[in-house]
Amino acid sequence: MNDLEKHIKRWSSCKLCNLHKTASKHALYDTEPEGASIVDILFVGEGPGRGEDMLGKPFVGASGKRLRDCIEKAITYLHADKKPVYGFTNLVACRPCDSKNGSNRVPTEVEVSQCCARLMQIIMILNPRLIIAVGNEAHFALRTRGVPHGRVTHPSYIVRHGHELDQSYIDSVFCEIKNVKSRLEVK
Ligand code: SF4
User: Fold this and answer.
1) Measuring from atom 3 of ligand 1, which residue has the nearest CA?
2) Which of 87, 117, 142, 163 is most deeply packed, by most CB within 10 A?
3) Could you tell me the CATH number of the domain that includes residue 129?
């Protein structure tokens, strides 16, 4: 069993914090393309929402899909010979809420701390050249823990504005990922 398989086995049944009680599935991580064992860029958000909870994957709900679309467009601006592999995870792997049918909420500092070993482990395994915090909560949590990272606004902000902010959001993602091109040593 490799490190990634061990990680999935250990954390997919984790009961360290109360969030497991209302979770349908632990949304540990995802990669594009699917099944990658290391990534060039890792996007770290706050926590899974309902769609992520059902599918057991981060960033697959409305906001996540918008982020994925914007990343794909931003990557085309790199004009790189090799498309970067990227991945997603969150500060917590189980949906932060107070009851099964309750609304999504921000994870507490205690929940973030309890899930931190998982987060650090997936960062170590996926070994990204670049980490990007998605939203303020992820930014503050990574900064507190001394993890170097870039940051973009949470895509729920652009979802609320229709498509009018898409281009500026794509530009902001590009601004964060452009340095990965030299790190990939691609032309
Ligand atoms: S949120 Fe993290 S620490 Fe809490 S139960 Fe889920 S995997 Fe475990």
Assistant:
1) 115
2) 87
3) 3.40.470.10
The per-residue pLDDT for range 91-140, each reduced to its tens digit, is 999 999 999 888 999 999 999 999 999 999 999 999 999 999 999 999 99
Q: What atom of ligand 1 comes closest to residue 117's alpha carbon? A: 3
Q: Is the peptide bond before 148 cis (omega within 30 degrees of 0)?
A: no
Strands (E), the chain: 30-32, 41-45, 86-90, 130-134, 150-152
34: CA distance to ligand 1 center in Å? 23
DSSP-assigned beta bridge partners for residue 87: 31, 42
- The alpha carbon of 166 and the centre of ligand 1 are apart by a number of angstroms equal to 32
- How many domains does the chain divide into? 1
- Check if the beta carbon of residue 66 is closer than 8 Å to that of residue 37: no
Give residues with Cβ within 8 angstroms of 39, minimum separation 6: 31, 84, 85, 86, 87, 126, 127, 128
